[in-house]
Amino acid sequence: MEEPTEEKESIAEASKEVSREFRTLVNADDLDTLKQLQHLILGRLQDSNAVLSHFNDYSENCFTEVSGDFYKNTRLLKSMKSDLDYIFLRLRTMKSKISAVYPDAFTDESAKQVEDRRPDLEAPMEP
């Protein structure tokens, strides 16, 4: 169903009238001020984007330089933890064997189970 031509023309004329009235509501100086502010904000955002891009590049380069050291040190720490766990296991075993053969070798205080106060390095850190 197509609208009659007269109705279309009246709608177009009403739209033009609304547009003319709307232009009188907005001050041209205010529009120019808004446009200048938008250009100023755009410039600042572009500058910020350039700074952030530079920082990302710099961070990537720094990470590349130290990632090998991080990897080596992480492996070293895990190896040291494994070695220390083995040493403590051997010490506990030796202590229990000595206690079995020589019950008076350790005082009552040393025979108590000592609480392990070492931090768990593999657990995620709480913020």
TrEMBL record:
GO BP term, example:
lysosome localization
- Boundaries of every KxDL domain copy: 22-106
What InterPro entries does the record tag this protein with? KXD1-like, KxDL_dom
Q: Name one GO cellular component term.
A: BORC complex
Top-level taxonomic group: Eukaryota
| Similarity annotation | Belongs to the KXD1 family.
Protein name, entry field = KxDL domain-containing protein
The organism of origin for this protein: Linum tenue
